[in-house]
Structures are given as structure tokens and as C-alpha cells.
Amino acid sequence: xxxxxxxxxxxxxxxxxxxxxxxxxxxxxxxxxxxxxxxxxxxxxxxxxxxxxxxxxxxxxxxxxxxxxxxxxxxxxxxxxxxxxxxxxxxxxxxxxxxxxxxxxxxxxx
Length: 110
Prior knowledge:
mainly alpha, 4 helices
């Protein structure tokens, strides 16, 4: 489905909101590792290695979704964000119904 310029602009705005939520989700998982270290349930080395692995894995996940975004990928990115709970149906309200239905279908929500 080809998006109009207006819908592409809306998509970029919603994608950015989801992108920020994705970063926050990653930071929370990093904080959990640091919390374990601060509570001395992990040694310094183990905490460092776990934090490094967590950041590396999450960075790969972020890169797969957001690096080199093309307009043809917007609906798939929005569907992935919806599926992951990074955006809500309310965030999609400025799209025409047929685009919302497509995003929901791609997200497995229908």
C-alpha cells in the first residue's frame, strides 16, 4: 500500500514516538542489570559482561527495526511497534481506516 505524503509524515511522527519508547524499554533492561550489581547479586565482572551483552543485543534489535528506514517499510515498522506495545491504537487515529486495518493485520491484531 502506497502512503500519501501526509500519511508518510504522520507515520514518521508515530514511528519516532515508538522509537523513543523502544529506547526507554532498553534503558529499563540495562537498569535492571545495574540494579543487580548495586545489590551485590552480581560481581563487577559478571555485571559488566551482562550489561555489555544486554546493550549489544538490544542495539542489534533497534538497528534491525530503524536503520535505513524507507517509506515502503513504514507500515511494517508501525505494525511491529504496535505488536510490541511501543505504540497504541490511539497513536494511529490520524490515519485513514484502511491504513489502520492494514497495520492491525500486519501486527496480527485481526
